[in-house]
Model the fold of this input.
Amino acid sequence: MTKMDKPSVFSRRALLKAGGALVVSVGVPLGLDAVLDHQAALAQSAKPPLMPDQLSSYIAVMADGRVAAYFGKMDMGHGIGVAIGQIVAEELDVAFSKVTVHMADTATSVNQGGASGSTGIQDGGKQMRMAAAEARRVLVEMAAAKLGTPADDLTVHDGVVMVKSNADKSTSYAQLIGGQYFNVQLDWNKKFGNPLYAPGKAKPKDYKDHKVVGQRIKREDVAPKVFAQEDFVTDVKVPGMLHARMIRPAVAGAVPTKVDESSIKDIPGARVVWQEGFLAVLAPREWDAIQAMGKLKVEWSNAAPPFPTQASLYDHIRKASVRKREVGKENGNVDDAFKTAARVIEAEYEWPFQSHACMGPACALVEIKDGLATCWSGTQKSHFVQQGIASILQMPVEKVHVKWINGPGSYGRNDADDCAMDAAVLAKAVNAPVRLQYMRDQGTGWDPKGPASIHRARAAIDAAGNMVAYEFTSKGFSRVDVNTNGSAPFDTLAGQTRGVALQSGDGFGVPAESYAFANKRLAWETIPPLLDRSSPLRSSHLRDPVGPQIHFASESFMDEVAAALNLDPIEFRLRHVKDPRDIALIKAAAQKANWETRASPRRGQTGSKVQGRGIAYSQRNGTRVAVVAEVEVDRASGKIWARRFTVAHDCGQIINPDGLEKCIEGNIVQGVSRTLWEEVKFDNKNVTSVDWQTYPILDITETPEKVDFVLINHPELPPTGAGEPSIRPVAAAIANAIFDATGVRIRRVPFSPEHVKAALA
Amino acid sequence: MPRDRRGIAAREDPPTMTQKFKLNVNGRDHTVDADPDMPLLYALRDDLGLNNPHFGCGLAQCGACTVHVDGQPVRACITPLSAVGAGKVVTLAGLGTPDKPHPLQTAYVDEQVPQCGYCINGWIMTAAAFLRDKKKPTDAEIRQALEGLKCRCGTHMGILRAVKRAAEQMAG
Done:
């Protein structure tokens, strides 16, 4: 009899009746690794159900006293795994080295939302903190009963519970529960994903008692990567697996009308899967699958070219009908204020489609065996991919197991979820395990794109030179034309190419800041997608979804107003910013950067190379960042070197300053790349940015020479996110610095040499 | 041979019959039976099970597949098996181990460089050949030596710190 079909005689009810075993589940004791075994995890006789209201869904103590933390999010390279380990170790009072964080496996963790919205610590860590605190409370209660001492008289050192006045009288977590699961109910808010919250009765520690939280602890995944000992999703192999490659149309929207399978008959084992618009080749050898992809003769439907020309993109957005308008923030009477203004300052900004362009195109492996589908994926959202595969294969969700494994980058809704779904369709079609990796042109050309947009801003100035009204409106493609995850077939290429109609959602955003004006209106408008399904320009989340574009515009505009009023850009901001933490932040950035108070542009520079400095600031879900950029502009070539940054960063309590600094640095460099270089090119038929030459990113020769930090720690406040906030103000800081250097305002990203040279001419 | 934008050789004739190739990888001899046009990358990954070099672009534009052949960094994704000959291939795993790390690997760990880590072969293998031949490089020379390699997570600052740290260590 397997674990799976063992009758659940040890149901929770039975345990509750049993009295003494209130907080400890019974059943198979945990071996050191058994806890990760899928079958064991599903075997409810050994463990309470894998539900958010169970302490066992987050924390377990192994027989040897080591602690397993089960986290429903994952580390995409920012060190979240370390931070979660620190939080768990802190609350449990065990050594950090004793905690192993198991991430985002659908068989061992509940859906905490995956990597999403910089919530790894903000939401995920909050839940893990509460779970670990509850585990400690329960364990101390158990120790109190065992030692015959009131719980208040006990203390814990590295998993050993001892009487405060007599250290010889002790027991340990391992002795109390090692090898068995908790059977403790939590107070779950009945939500899944980022908002999931399920505290117990315990209160977490006062920050003044923190010893592990706040330390610079290094990541454990770095050395295995550096010594090539770690499997990426691309490295997983299973016996009998076929390699697959997708075939996408040259004209977006076209579907295959004739597929000549004889054209690949000479390639050993090569075969075709064709289902409506879904077309793939497979072969036992990877190189053969790639050859088959190139050789397969396909006739395509005569689809009308679906896209405007690249040059008319922003005109298209301007003229497009508004599908949804939302006013995110409004006070005063903006329209009246503009009617009576002494002076109106207006500007419009433009941001292109951008690609996730991960280092490798997405890869996934799906095996369907004994009624169970297993998917290895580098997705940001394994629990949502689990739902998507269940839906597209018409299987119960509990029969789908998604194992998250490190992939080639992430940064939002990249191509990973589409790849997992495509692989699932193929594995079912050929009745064999399928490893699918996209090709470079598909990774860049066919990933969901960060939306293109325009942004209009205007300011009303009264006769005394005060800004009395502010209106800001974004208009662009939706951030959720396809959703942020692949949980529904209509949000994936596998669904859309096989006839499921797109269900395009509407979402954008407004500037996040604390500027107070007597009259203020921040709004957004979304327009319909260019193609109603399977579009290489479908839009979704790209790191800090719509944040860089909105704040490029809003923070450039604040600079424009400051310059028009002949005011120092920081002085102008500080006149209007109201949040005390924002004020402290901006002042800290200015001080660290040795900011010289004066209006922009800088006067009296001669020669081809000129220097400038600019500031921008923004908030994001509680975190706030101010960035000072110092740039060098070569007026002859149009080339920008964003050479130096000063970043003031306030995300509440800092869990690990080392991880935070690395995370910010990555944000800054990727932000520079997206500002200076990145633009998805297309013609009227398809995306033409298909590799690193047609989608250039920042080169190491252009990397900043220095990034300085001011990490503002508020240990008394809950931690907020850091994965994205600091990419948000980068574009505006650079634009403002270019203006300072040259006196020319650039209102369209990217600031490539070609564009800058044209703007300076 | 002309290649399309996916790096696929443009040819209409049937695939060449496979041939046996001897490969010396990380000091060990192997035999691979494959299409002579098949890039070295697939032999290393699929036939020899060496996961270190990654497929990034198949176009020699990013470096994720970089290995050494006779000490020189090459892009395994476009190097046909037939061109390797008797060349000695070294991958990232062959460069050093946790017990006997290459100074660059030590520096990478000390500086906590990678985020996703998928690009790592390009930077370390290219820098290893550079630092072997160039003692005490300037910052500008380090940047120049690494030109063209790609990192999407934006770990460039850490890469430069690590290469500089390794250079200082190797210079004694």
Remarks:
- The two ends of chain B are 45 Å apart (CA to CA).
- The first helix of chain B runs from residue 40 to 47.
